[in-house]
Amino acid sequence: MALTVGKKAPAFSGVDQNGNSIALKDFKGKKVVLYFYPKDDTPGCTAQACNLRDNHSELLKKGFVVIGVSVDSVKKHKKFEEKYDLPFWLVADEDKKIVEAYRVWGEKKFMGKTYMGTTRTTFLIDEDGKIKSIIEKPDTKNHAAEVLEAWANA
Q1: Residue 137 φ then ψ, to 5°
Q2: What topology does CATH give the domain 13-153?
Q3: Catalytic residue of the set 32, 33, 34, 45
């Protein structure tokens, strides 16, 4: 069953780049930008993270919290955070429970090869924990603007 706008966002918990537990319920009453990305320190994922970093203060002013999720390890997330000075949470989902709950783990193709991986997708979750908007295949270089526009138009 696909996730759709208006439905309750799947609850999740995980560990961030600092080894701290983090759960969706911790952000009740906040607007959440929950973005799923394939891999730390790759060109598209770096562009997306840096765009969110560069616009983080504007997102905060508008009441958003940003949480990135990939299947990379806590250690890899920490290196990624430090290398690019990322000011938000990066959740390690090595057991793939979160990507599966959000239906973003699946078959992908690259250069003629088929493999399993995370589909780049962003879920905007409202203060009550409901999905307000879903951004499929986000523009990595302009993602913060997409988030603000999608929220305003939802």
Answers
A1: 50, 60
A2: Glutaredoxin (3.40.30)
A3: 45
